[in-house]
Amino acid sequence: MTTTLTDRPARARERLRRDAARVLLTNWTGTSTVPSHTLYPHQWSWDSAFIAIGLRHLSPRRAQRELESLVGAQWADGRIPHIVFSPRVPLDAYFPSPDFWRSSTAGRAAGAPAGTETSGIVQPPVHALAAALVHERDPATSRRRGFLERLYPRLAAWHDYLLRDRDFTGHGLASVVHPWEPGMDNSPCWDGPLRRITPAPPESFRRVDLTHGDAAARPTDLDYGRYVRLAADYRDHGYRDAGTPHPFAVEDPGFNALLIASEHALAGIAEQVGRDPRPHRERAEALTDALVRHLWQPKAGMFLCRDVRGDSVIEDRSVTGLLPLVVPSLPGHVVDALLGTVTGEHFGLGTGTRLVASYDLRGPAFDPARYWRGPAWFNINWLLERGLRLHGAASEADALRRAVLDAAGGSRFAEYVDPYTGEGHGANRFSWTAAVALDLLAGTAEEDGR
Amino acid sequence: MLKTACQEQLLPGDTLQEKWEFAQNAGFDAIELRAKGDHHFRGRLPELRAALKDGVVMPTVCVDMLHFFGAFDADLRRDAVEQMKSQLSVIAEIGGRGAQTPASYGMFSRRLPPFEPPRGEEEERAVLLEGLTELGEHARKEGVHLYLEPLNRYEDHMVNRLEQAVDLIRAVGLDSVRIGIDSYHMNIEEADPAAAILEAAPYIGHAQVSDSNRFQPGAGHLDWPAWLAALHTIGYDGYLAAECRLTGDPVGAVRSIPGFLRRSGA
User: Fold this and answer.
1) Residue A186 contacts by C-beta under 8 Å, 6 or more apart in sequence?
2) pTM across the whole model
3) Which of A77, A269, B46, B164 is at a distance of 20 to 30 A from A132, taking alpha carbons?
4) What angle do CA B92, B95, B96 make, to 5 degrees?
5) Distance of alpha carbon A310 from alpha carbon A313, whole angstroms
6) In a domain, A93, yes or no
7) Each residue's pLDDT expressed in tens, for chain A with a length of 450 residues
């Protein structure tokens, strides 16, 4: 490749870099970064991982702190909670708030920390991948601070939790127990499994997301009631997976693909800290085999979610089924089919859309503006860019990188965008949007140099 | 890339030309001058003109006196203002950008006995505004800037944080008065130095660098990448002037500064 990015001259890139840096410097709170000061004023698990990947270009120390502060709230059972609440933020600034989750009391038996309030569910395990990338950016600072030595046992315990307590089927894959766990909160994939859930009564909770967000782009009240019911039931069972009925349980390909990528990263981290990397490599390979065996759907040309309680394939095509592109050792025919699907009629990258949509463009539930039912997300597109590059689709990766950078700057670092037009939705000055832009900009600098 | 400068007393050599030779080899882009009182700086004009002719880059000067425009004593205050005006004229004459001064240094600290300064807050503010206005008008006339440097709480009791300097500069209302930030003082006073730079962005005119322990950048524990990223973010186009003490071999210590700042993102 000799692309020189003539459509993004150095000055425009420098401006984008400054604007992205401003977002991350402004959203820093001293120990971590809020996704958005308005809509999301606490620390989110997978947000922090993507933020660290961008923050490493501004301050390796802050990037390390970002991940350290997150794992500082890890539970004794190994889970990394999806939200770590800031005690400085008023209770009513976000729902479900700490007094809903009650982690320090309800989660005590499961090992929730006593001095920090968190949620009780999790988000995709992208943290080891982030930690490895943060280390790579400045190994000297990382070694001096003992970054990987401190993180390694925590990350290993996190992966242990997922494969010990969340493998409900014996397939060797982790299940998610709430639509918020795979990170794609309102995906049409969850509509089927959610129908079984009796919503919590509307008067039992008060949404805050609608105060800052556009209701037409957010989940419906009925779905929100179901989210609340699932979380409350988990809480009322002490957040112990063995004792909770978990009426919602899904094997999600993206979630497991990120676990595999992180398991590979953990092998590298183990080597750095003088530990045996082989168990991690073996676990990554076993996970890869299980992923392909149980979730690969050749007719769809992609991975599909599995409804564990209904013992059935969820036929909706979600971008989660393309995320296994980040897995290094996929069978060749799977890679070929995935590359075809990314650019094919259902996702249309490069022909129909500028960024990869979160959901099937031809799907019955497609909506280019509604939360996880069509819009494009920047962290997802960062992962796909990485996956395309990993599997040799360099020109597609370069094109996607340019599109992501244009959409990030053009939308003022929106939370998510219309995949066709790049029009921004949700919060703006959103941290992971700025973070992945910074990281991709660093990649364009390398491209210029080759 | 941000440009770097080194204060003249840190550089080996007997003349500015010799110091410049060393500074350039080390990777500095300029020399920051130091100005003593009693119009000593004005007396150096022949030396400075000769250095300028020989290509020495000298964009800024930092005051090197023991009384300042915020002094309690009216006579000392008057003298400090006169000295600063003269220093602004000299730096203008050699084509520089500006002169840096704190409100005071070593005169009083609210953190040390007797804790309460002899002047009330209203009077302090009036003194500062009067001094900054006179100096700012002189700087404007000369086409240069006066850089007001917030110092940490143990060295000055009046202007410690960037927001206090911004407040005074807004009240003065002169573009010729800017803030001269200093990484060492900011480390003590600012909750988040990088965020403070973003907040005060339009008012920042100059930057001095030393590490958390006042030694050369790289010898302490400041988060330099974050601090420098903030300066890049606001489009800062001035110098990073090393004003520090040195630890280790002094020549090696000075030589290490530009490379360290570059590696940290300058």
Assistant:
1) A179, A218, A219, A223, A370, A371, A372, A373
2) 0.93
3) A77
4) 75
5) 9
6) yes
7) 333 344 557 889 999 999 999 999 999 999 999 999 998 999 999 999 999 999 999 999 999 999 999 999 999 999 999 999 999 999 989 999 999 999 999 999 999 999 999 999 999 999 999 999 999 999 999 999 999 999 999 999 999 999 999 999 999 999 999 999 999 999 999 999 999 999 999 888 888 777 766 787 778 888 899 999 999 999 999 999 999 999 999 999 999 999 999 999 999 999 999 999 999 999 999 999 999 999 999 999 999 999 999 999 999 999 999 999 999 999 999 999 999 999 999 999 988 899 999 999 999 999 999 999 999 999 999 999 999 999 999 999 999 999 999 999 999 999 999 999 999 999 999 999 999 999 999 998 766 554
Q: Vertex A333, ends A327 and A337: CA angle to 5°? A: 80
Span between the terminal Cα atoms of chain A, in Å: 9
Residue that has been written with the tokens 């949509």 in this structure: A357
What ipTM does this complex have? 0.88
Of B8, B142, B189, B243, which one is the catalytic site residue? B243
Task: Give B53 to chain A, closest Cα distance, Å.
Answer: 34
Contacts of A11 (CB under 8 A, 6+ apart): none
Query: DSSP E strands: which ranges in A98-230?
Result: 175-176
Instruction: Identify the active-site residue in B8, B32, B149, B189.
Output: B149
**Inter-chain touch B223–A58, beta carbons under 8 Å:** no
Phi then psi for residue A218, to 5 deg, are -100, 165
- Sign, CA torsion A21/A23/A29/A35: negative
A77, A55 contact by CB (below 8 A): no
SS3 A297: strand
| CATH number of this structure's domain B3-264 | 3.20.20.150
Distance CA A98, CA A113 (A): 13
Q: Closest Cα of chain A to B242: distance in Å? A: 21
For residue B145, the cross-strand partners are B98
Q: Which of A185, A191, A423, A447 is catalytic?
A: A185
- Among the listed residues B168, B216, B193, the one whose alpha carbon sits nearest the alpha carbon of residue B10: B216
What chain B residue is nearest to A17 in terms of C-alpha separation? B233
Instruction: Report the alpha-carbon distance of residue B260 to residue B266 in Å, rounded.
Output: 9
Strands of A424-425's sheet in order across: A376-377, A416-417, A424-425
- Give the residue from B4, B87, B86, B96 showing the smallest Cα distance to B51: B96
* Kind and range of the H or E run holding B222: none
Check CB contact under 8 Å for A61 and B192. Answer: no
Which residue in B64, B149, B60, B69 sits closest to B102, CA to CA? Answer: B149
Give me the CATH number covering residue A134. Answer: 1.50.10.10
Q: Do B229 and A61 touch (CB under 8 A)?
A: no
Q: Which of helix, strand or coil describes residue A308?
A: coil
How many domains does one find in chain A? 1
Pick from B220, B217, B200, B197: which is nearest to B209 by CA?
Answer: B217
Containing domain of residue A183, as a range? 11-348+430-448
What residues does each domain of chain B span?
A: 3-264
Query: Cα–Cα distance between A65 and A50 in angstroms, integer?
Result: 13
Distance of CA A327 to the CA centre of its chain: 15
CA atoms B167, B170, B172, B178: torsion sign: positive
As a whole number of Å, the end-to-end CA separation of chain B is: 6
